[in-house]
Specification:
It contains 14 helices and six strands. It is mainly α. The strands form two sheets. A three-stranded antiparallel beta sheet has the order 1-3-2.
Length: 334
């Protein structure tokens, strides 16, 4: 009896041969199903990532167009909150794809705004002290402030198209006349500041505006409100300095004014005004007045995106109010 019971227990514990073969046949198929599932999940994830990036690119393009319409800079912080969200590490890839779409479909591109210059006497003194410091320390300071993290849209069309109002007319909102007048006014003011050595006192600017019969009112708004709007939109920078005991108020060209107008735009306005005179040395006089490089005359207006950085900031301006420069001497004679 004990022998029989032992044989029955062994028979119950040993699996059937058919069951083992079925398990062997099912094992490879189960592994392949798991691999297929992993591949499908990975493919789906890649497709989702591509679709998500495409949506972020479209959002950035819309943000750039809307910001330019409102004359507001495209800030890195706004891109992070309104476009990227939790995908902040994809900024570079999204930005490059958005640039490609803007260039191919709209003929525009995002240009980084320059950093605001040091304008007060104390800040200028800091610059001089930094220049006397060790080169390594100066380089560290430059690296800490080499990016403004803000951009504006500019056209990349050739100058013969970009400067043609029939091809690129002024915006129609609120009206084309209002917008073209506004563009002409801030181009005129930026030209005055540039020809005055990069900065102009409030009293001197008021005198120029009085000559143009715009010291109190302009076709856009009151002169005071117009200047405040230009400062808000980045065309101008207004600063006050009372370190000498007497308050001095001056205007400089703002970051947006440097990118949108720049020396090339100022030169274009001068050539338009003096076209009837056909001065032979006009280019040389413009180059001297704006402190442009020797190779400036070989570049076409509006085609060189780096032209805005040719003029060295902080050029010493003449304090003599009666000496207005080459172009103003002729204006006084006329």
């Amino acid at each position: 009896m004990p022998l029989v019971r032992k044989r029955r227990a062994d028979a119950e514990q040993s699996p059937e041969p058919g069951t083992q073969s079925q398990r062997r046949r099912r094992s490879p198929s189960a592994a392949s199903v798991e691999e297929d599932g992993d591949d499908y999940a990975e493919t789906t994830q890649l497709q989702d990532d591509a679709a998500s990036r495409d949506q972020m690119v479209k959002k950035l393009v819309r943000l750039a167009l809307a910001s330019e319409y409102a004359r507001q800079p495209i800030r890195r912080a706004d891109v992070g909150t309104k476009v990227l969200g939790q995908y902040s590490r994809q900024f570079k890839a999204v930005f490059e794809e958005a640039q490609t779409q803007l260039r191919d479909k709209f003929g525009m591109e995002m240009i980084e705004l320059p950093i605001k210059e040091k304008v007060t006497i104390s800040q200028r003194r800091d610059i001089e002290e930094a220049d006397r410091a060790f080169v390594s320390a100066a380089q560290r300071a430059d690296k800490a402030s080499t990016s403004s993290k803000a951009w504006v849209l500019t056209t990349i069309l050739p100058s013969k198209y970009a400067s043609n109002p029939t091809i690129i007319p002024p915006p129609h909102v609120p009206t084309s006349t209002t917008e073209s007048t506004y563009i002409g006014l801030y181009t005129f003011i930026i030209a005055l500041i540039s020809l005055s050595g990069g900065s102009i006192s409030e009293a001197k600017l008021e005198r120029y505006m009085r000559r143009a019969n715009a010291d109190q009112y302009t076709p856009i708004d009151r002169t005071e409100r117009l200047l405040a709007r230009l400062c808000k939109e980045g065309y101008l920078v207004k600063f006050r300095d009372a370190s000498s005991g007497e308050e001095v108020v001056e205007y400089m060209v703002g970051p947006r004014g440097k990118v949108e107008i720049g020396p090339e735009g100022v030169a274009g306005m001068i050539k338009t005004v003096y076209a009837a005179d056909e001065a032979e040395d006009l280019d040389q006089r413009i180059q001297r007045s704006l402190n442009l490089g020797s190779g400036w005359g070989r570049n076409k207006i509006g085609n060189d995106p780096g032209a805005n950085e040719r003029r060295a900031p902080g050029r010493p301006r003449r304090d003599d109010e009666d000496d207005e420069g080459d172009f103003d001497e002729e204006s006084d004679e006329g």
